[in-house]
Each structure stands twice: as structure tokens, then as C-alpha cells.
Amino acid sequence: MKIETARCLLRPWCMDDKAALVRIANNPKIARNMTNIYPSPYTVSDAECWLNARSGDDAPYMHIAIEIGGNLAGGIGVHPREGIHERTAELGYWLGEAFWGQGYMTEVVKAVIPYAFETFDLHRLEACQFGWNPASGKVLEKAGFRLEGCLREAICKDGKFTDRLLYGLLREEAF
Asked: What does the pLDDT read at residue 111?
């Protein structure tokens, strides 16, 4: 699987990404906006574990490396849900700090949307924004997502509470 945008290449993760992954992912500013399973500090061992889990991965979700100018820049993932939430998936993403504020993530999210809807036969895509990260909400809105609600102080990260803003995009809105 490869998706090319005007400035980015979206591709599978590989073991060659290890050094770059550690270099860009070991950033507390990135970890601050990720779930607690994202390690901080981000070590070589963490990168090896992540990359080993991605090789030959046939799980019902996708994890995609983001490359900009031939360099690893971040990642994006789509995680289908189950049960009463079937045909819905959660979108999550992160980008190395050197690439922030340049429109890359909006470009990437827009490219992943049709791929996700088709690959998983989705009806709905969801994403959440941490209250203290309005840039993430702007990415989602530019990609067509709608703000659907705010779960007040629903996220606790490093002992601090923030709101969880829920965004959604229906298949009919994406095409």
C-alpha cells in the first residue's frame, strides 16, 4: 500500500525507519497529545517493538508511515471499531515537530479518508482532539470532519485534565 500526495508519501512502516522514528518520536510535545500507550521518552527499544509489531501485520487496522522529502515525518492510523460501532473507525495521527504548521497533516488526512472508507467499507470515521491542541481540530475541519461534541475534562494526561473534542465524517460527506 502506497499513497502519494503532492508533497508526501504514505507507506508501510519498515525496520529501516527505526533511527528516524526514535529521533522524531522522542518529543514530549508529541507525547502530550497521544494516548498513554505512546512511550515518553521514546527509545530504540520502543521503536523496535513498534516496527516488529507492524511487519507482516494483517490485523483489521492500518498503520501508515508518513514520509516528506524522503524522510520519515510521522504516522497515521485507522482503527475499525466493533459491535454496535461496526463500520466506524477511529483516525489517529502524529507528525514530527519540524513539520508542524505547514499543512502536511491536512494533506495526509485528506488522502487517507477515501482509502479508509473503501478499505474497511466504513460508514463513519471519527477522530478526537485534545482540548489543548486546537491545531489538530483545524486539520480535521479542513479535511471535512465536523465537530460533534465536547466531553468535558474527559482526558487526563500527565495529571492534567483537558476536554476531548469528538469529530466525525460520514461516508456520504467524504465523496
From this structure: 97
